[in-house]
Amino acid sequence: MNSSATHITFGLIINPIAGVGGPLAFKGSDDAECIQQALRDGAEAKAQQRCLQALSGLVPLAERCHFVTCSGAMGEQVLTELGLNFELLAEDVPEYTSAEHTRWAAQQMQARAVDVLLFAGGDGTARDICQVVEDRLPVLGIPAGVKIHSGVFAVSPIAAGEILRHLLLGDLVDIALAEVRDLDEDAYRQHQLKARTFGEMQVPRLGHFVQAVKQGGVEVEALVLDDIAASVVQNMQDDVLYLIGAGKTTQAVLHALGMSGTLLGVDAVYNQQLIATDLTESLIWSLLQQYPQCRALVSTVGGQGHVFGRGNQQFSPRVLRHLGKSNIQVLSSKTKMRALQGRPLLMDSGDAQLDAEWTGTMIVTTGYEDTIVYPLS
Q: Could you say which DSSP state residue 300 is in?
């Protein structure tokens, strides 16, 4: 890094279509056909918005930093809106970019020896950048994708901004290798979790601002899942719509009801009958208007502690506000909770105000008639 803590050059790459399929229940956005379908269905690209959240805190320190970025939606628009100093790479990029554009930008920024390479995207974007820079350059991800299993991302856009702010202030910021992991999207769409490691990158770390690698295989005894499910089913109320989120823990509830739902999506149950599966955000919103009483059952992401913002973006800010925090039931084994080693549960809804409003604690069902209270940040 530069010897002076008062001037740092950041490379910035935004994947404009990252996460575009999340609210529509697509299992990623690496496939061009999926992207076009998502856009035709009215999906919004939110990577720029999340990048704005991450970098807005740097505006008071603008004189201490300089950016190298790409034209248009890959970086130029965000930095122009924030008034931060930047220079553009020579080549113009199209509105909807590909993996080749990401790799090209990473090559250019590595050649220019930027101090830290920032990117907004998901595991696919991380994988493309890792293919170019490997562990030769500090890299920090701003989470904006559907799949975020890698350990190179900050826990939220605001957390990414905090790491960068501390760098600019000259504070001590650790750096360590972190895994880049990605799922097989074809298998993912068939409700199978198949992930592998594609490499490691150097990542700046500060406190709990960088997420852990998602644990693909959750080591939970079947009996524990059965106990959690039995407790939930016993306490289910009539005439209440239950939205069952993704994960093996929540799937145990459906199995206890004699149903087969969507392992990696959101299903709806009413009066112990499965009424809809693999719901999109808009379909969830429609159901919320039809049913006066609604609750959501969600689980935590193993190793990370995310409750919202990782693989369940169908629970959008408007959906969560409508439900209310008191109507969210978190399900998790105590083994998974202990694996957090004191780190809080995390919320990264995409709405910073909502995340702040819900900060505090959550009640977590950990067994049969067994609950704990745990911090949520």
A: P
